[in-house]
Amino acid sequence: MNLPNKLTILRVIMIPVFIFFMLVPDISGGKWWALLFFCLASVTDFFDGYLARKNNWVTDFGKFMDPLADKLLICSAIIALCSKGRFPAWIVIIIIAREFTISGFRLIAADNGKVISASIWGKVKTVVQMFTVIMLICDFNEVSGTNLPGDGAVFWIEQGLIYLALLLTVISLIEYIMKNRDVITTFK
C-alpha cells in the first residue's frame, strides 16, 4: 500500500470524526474542530493525487477509492449541513444522485475490466463543493452577528457557491455519461 492510498484511507477515517464535531451539540468549538477535520481530509485529496501522479504510484485501488472517498466526504458534509438548515435538501439529493450514478458507472466498468478515472469537470466540481462546505461550516454571518437569511454579502456568496456546486455537479454528470456511454452498452 503506497502513500497516496494511505492518504485516501486516512480521508475516509477522518469523516466520522468530522461528522462527530459537526453534529454533536454542545462541544466547545465543535464547528471549528469539524472545519479542521474537513480541511485536513480535503487536503489529503490534493496530496494523494499529486503524489500518485508525480511518483507514478497510480493504482487501480487509488483510481477507485480516491473518488469514492471524495464522495463520502462531500455527501457526509452536505447532509450534515442540510440537517443544520445550511444546504437545501433538493440540491443535496441531486448531488447524491449524481454520485450514485457515477459510482454505478464505475462498478459496471470495473465488472468489464475497465477503470474509469475522474475527469477534469469532476475534479473542479469536487474543489468547488469542498470550498462551499468550508464557507458554510464557517458561517461568517453567524460570526459577524448578522445571522439572518439574505442579510449581507456573505449570504449571497454562500448561495452563489451552492448553485455553482450544483451547476458543476450537473455538467460533470453529463460529461461523464457522454464520455463513458459505452459502459451502458456493455451492461446486459
Segments where pLDDT lies below 50 for 5+ residues?
none
The DSSP helix count reads 8
Structural class: mainly alpha
* Helical content class: over 70%
Tally of strands: 0
- Strand proportion: under 5%
Straight-line N-to-C gap: 34 Å
Q: Could you state the order of secondary-structure elements as H and E?
A: HHHHHHHH
Radius of gyration equals 17 Å
Described by the principal axes of the CA atoms, the overall outline is globular
How is the biggest beta sheet arranged? none
Average predicted confidence as pLDDT: 89
Describe the protein in words.
With 188 residues, this protein is mostly helical. It has helices at residues 3-23, 30-54, 60-83, 89-111, 120-138, 140-144, 152-179, 182-186. Helix 1 packs parallel to helix 3, helix 2 (30-54) runs antiparallel to helix 5 and helix 3 packs parallel to helix 5. The protein starts with a helix and ends with a helix. The model has no long low-confidence stretch (mean pLDDT 89).
Structure summarized in a few sentences:
The protein is built from 8 helices and no strands.
Write the layout of secondary structure elements.
Elements: H1 3-23, H2 30-54, H3 60-83, H4 89-111, H5 120-138, H6 140-144, H7 152-179, H8 182-186
Helix pairs in contact: 1-2, 1-3, 2-3, 2-5, 3-4, 3-5, 4-7, 5-7
Which terms summarize this structure?
188 residues
